[in-house]
TrEMBL record:
One of its GO terms (biological process) is signal peptide processing. Keywords: Hydrolase, Membrane, Protease, Transmembrane, Transmembrane helix. It catalyses: Cleavage of hydrophobic, N-terminal signal or leader sequences from secreted and periplasmic proteins. It comes from Candidatus Spechtbacteria bacterium RIFCSPLOWO2_01_FULL_46_10. GO terms for cellular component: membrane. This is Signal peptidase I. NCBIfam families: sigpep_I_bact. GO terms for molecular function: serine-type endopeptidase activity; signal peptidase activity. Its EC number is 3.4.21.89.
Amino acid sequence: MVKSSTFFLDIVKIVIIALIIIIPIRFFVVQPFFVRGASMEPTYSQGDYLLVDEISYRFSEPDRGDVIIFRAPTGESQFFIKRVIGLPGETVRVAGGEVLIINDAFTDGFVLGEEYIGNSITGNLETTLNENEYFMLGDNRGASFDSRAWGPLEHDLIIGKVFLRAWPFGDFGLIDTPQYETGR
């Protein structure tokens, strides 16, 4: 009888230690995310299971091209997934099927080369981002509810950066951020 109660106590200790380790990781370090909708196709599809790094942006700022998860800026209780296109202090101009970024380094602007998505953008808009604001776009420009509709994203709504695709298993792996010819 003593052996079974010792075994039971050992199991309880293991479970408690596991919870002490797992719960903080889940709530403060890494968060799972299921893709819903087509706004990030062809990069991510409906049902993809992603892991989100919640720590990096506490010590650094998002870079152009990062795919991030954030709270809906429209006040809804849902999360969005989009790509960072414009950074604080920049002017983003959408016109003629292209995205033009104007910043201190490129006062005439540069066209954002986005060969990884293979489609052009519609719309005609220009916005200058304030400190702690980002311009977000979905990779599927024709089916994305993004900064063109709700404006700049404030930094405090950001949950974290997508760093791993866990499902579908055939696409399992770390996420690469595209490198642009100019700009940060």
